[in-house]
Amino acid sequence: QVQLAESGGGLVQVDDSLKLSCTASGLTFSIGVMGWFRQAPGKEREFVTAISRGRNTYYADSVKGRATISRDNAKNTMYLVINSLKPEDTAVYYCAADRQYYSSGNGVAHFATNYDYWGQGTQVTVSS
C-alpha cells in the first residue's frame, strides 16, 4: 500500500502564488504517474496536472501557463506551484498516484480512474 499526504494549502490572496507538496510513503517503488485533482464546493472533482516518473507532464487548460508540477523521485515527493491565483482556484486539492511504474501517463493521466491511491486533500482558498 501507498499513503499520500498533502501539505501547503491555506488562505491566499488573488494573484498570489502557492506551493503544494505531496509525499508518498509505504510501497513507493511501485508508483508511476502522480497527479493533482481538485474539487470545489458543489462541483465534481477535476484534473489539474500530472507527472510521470519520467517527468512527462500534463496540465488542465484552467491552469496551463500558471502551474508547474515537479517531482523528486528520491524523496517520493511531488510539488505543485500555481501562480497568479484566481478565486476559481479555490478547492480542496487532492494528490493521487498510480501503480504503473513505466507509464508515461499519455491518454490516462487526466482520468481519476487511472489512480490507485489518494491523499486526504488540502484546502486552498483564494480570497479577493
Helix percent reads under 10%
What's the rounded overall pLDDT mean? Answer: 96
Report the radius of gyration as a whole number of Å.
14 Å
Strand content: over 45%
What characterizes the major β-sheet?
7 strands, mixed
N-to-C series of helices and strands: EEEEEEEEEEE
What gap, in angstroms, lies between the N and C termini? 40 Å
Q: In terms of structural class, how would the helical and strand content be classed?
A: mainly beta
Poorly predicted tracts of residues: none
- Oligomeric organization of the protein chains: single chain
Count of helical stretches: 0
Describe the 3D structure.
There is one protein chain. The protein is mainly β and 128 residues long. It is built from no helices and eleven strands. The chain has strands at residues 2-7, 10-13, 18-26, 34-39, 46-51, 57-59, 67-72, 77-82, 91-97, 117-118, 122-127. The strands form two sheets. Strands 2, 4, 5, 6, 9, 10 and 11 form a seven-stranded mixed beta sheet that branches. A four-stranded antiparallel beta sheet has the order 1-3-8-7, with no helix packed on it. A hairpin with a 6-residue loop joins strand 4 (34-39) and strand 5.
